[in-house]
UniProtKB/TrEMBL annotation:
<dbReference type="InterPro" id="IPR051217">
    <property type="entry name" value="Insect_Cuticle_Struc_Prot"/>
</dbReference>
<feature type="signal peptide">
    <location>
        <begin position="1"/>
        <end position="20"/>
    </location>
</feature>
<dbReference type="Pfam" id="PF00379">
    <property type="entry name" value="Chitin_bind_4"/>
</dbReference>
<dbReference type="GO" id="GO:0031012">
    <property type="term" value="C:extracellular matrix"/>
</dbReference>
<dbReference type="GO" id="GO:0042302">
    <property type="term" value="F:structural constituent of cuticle"/>
</dbReference>
<keyword id="KW-0193">Cuticle</keyword>
<keyword id="KW-0732">Signal</keyword>
<dbReference type="InterPro" id="IPR000618">
    <property type="entry name" value="Insect_cuticle"/>
</dbReference>
<dbReference type="GO" id="GO:0005615">
    <property type="term" value="C:extracellular space"/>
</dbReference>
<protein>
    <submittedName>
        <fullName>Uncharacterized protein</fullName>
    </submittedName>
</protein>
Amino acid sequence: MKKVVWLVMVVVVHTAPVDQEPVPRTQLLDQQHLTPRPYAFKFIINDEVENVRFAQAAQGDDQGRVRGTYSYVRPDNVLVIVHYTADAEGFHPVIVERPASQFRKNPSGTSTFTMLLPDTEEFSVKLTADQLREYRQQAALREQQAAQQG
């Protein structure tokens, strides 16, 4: 009998309400649905120094559909071109592979980066191998200084 009384007391103590402040309820906000806006962008990387070739261009319409293409040269010198559409039905790529022109690393070549973002003018940056090397050295020095500071 003592065990039963003791067990009942333990249950009562554990189930008794504790004076606590009420837990604030989380309010769910309505999800905001933004209307798609037309846009277009592109960028091209033609880096002779590191032998990197990559390009992408896409445009979206006011219905949320996107059409675009991107391409790159694989290390085995195959040019890969992907044309795609993305819409309510999903992502639909068409992939084409073909031999690329012979691209070789040129340590004294140039690197060109071209970009067009929505609502901007196209701009391009061309760096010589020496300029690119100097930029990388400065970036490595800044990273090293930042790591030493904390």
